[in-house]
Amino acid sequence: MFASPPPRSRVSLLPSQRYVERLYLSFSPVWMAIIAYCMLTHCFARWGDVGHLLLGLALSLPLWLLPLLRPPAIEVGQPLWARHSAKANLFIALMSFVQCYFGSAMFFDGLGMEYHFPTKWLINRTPLFLYFVTVAYFSTYYALMRLGLRLFLARVPRASSGVVWAVTALLSYSMAFAETFCMASESLRAFFSYADRHKALLVGSVCYGTLFFVSLPVFLRIDEDPRAPTPASRLFFHTMGANLVILCAYEVYKVLLPLW
């Protein structure tokens, strides 16, 4: 699962993969605009637990419901668990929920991350609504990273495995840095902050980027071979295996972070 680099042979997508990528990227400006409005106005400061949860559901439910209501033609008549859109959403949901529950500890303990949102519904120190908001975030991140890797391979089709891994690492770090830069801002400091923003940006993005570096190959390989679609059960175990590798890396980072 992790021994070989991301697939290099396909720079075009299957129709079902293209549908999911377009869905994720088309919805990205919507959730970004909503989050930006909330950040600029601080309107969420008056919402309480129910309001925050509704925000999270509003940003995640469209990604789950749209493929059910308007599936691509190629998926019409297929069982739900056999659809690429359902498997892609399963991957995103697992990565979001597992990492919010287990992975946040590294950011709390190692980087001094703090949440001060006006909500009391917490699960393992993380506000409940963020579990669902992360679904929207991750859908965009994985779609952008796959797009970036495809564009690179289209231009450099004979890139070596080492170069492909290097590009994957760069994309992973960029996604992590971009989120940290936008969220750990002065406008949100009263609700979300790091003990040392500079360290969170430069070093914390390496830690966070490990999540994408390890898990992106799993996402890319969902139904990569049209002759042998990925069973949902195999995807579940591969995704959970990626999460385990990530969490083990986080434990190492927690030991090393005080030294950096």
Strand and helix layout:
Elements: H1 15-41, H2 48-69, H3 84-111, E1 114-115, E2 122-123, E3 126-127, H4 128-155, H5 161-183, E4 192-193, H6 197-220, H7 232-256
Antiparallel strand pairs: 1-4, 2-3
Helix pairs in contact: 1-2, 1-4, 2-4, 3-4, 3-6, 3-7, 4-5, 5-6, 6-7
Describe the protein's architecture and organization.
- This protein is mainly alpha-helical.
- The protein has one domain (15-259).
- The chain contains seven helices and four strands; from the N terminus they run H-H-H-E-E-E-H-H-E-H-H.
- It has helices at residues 15-41, 48-69, 84-111, 128-155, 161-183, 197-220, 232-256, and strands spanning 114-115, 122-123, 126-127, 192-193.
- The protein has a two-stranded antiparallel ribbon with strand order 1-4.
- A hairpin with a 2-residue loop joins strand 2 (122-123) and strand 3.
- Helix 3 packs antiparallel against helix 6 (197-220), helix 3 runs parallel beside helix 7 and helix 6 packs antiparallel against helix 7.
- The longest helix has 28 residues, at 84-111.
- The two termini are 31 Å apart.
- The model has no long low-confidence stretch (mean pLDDT 92).
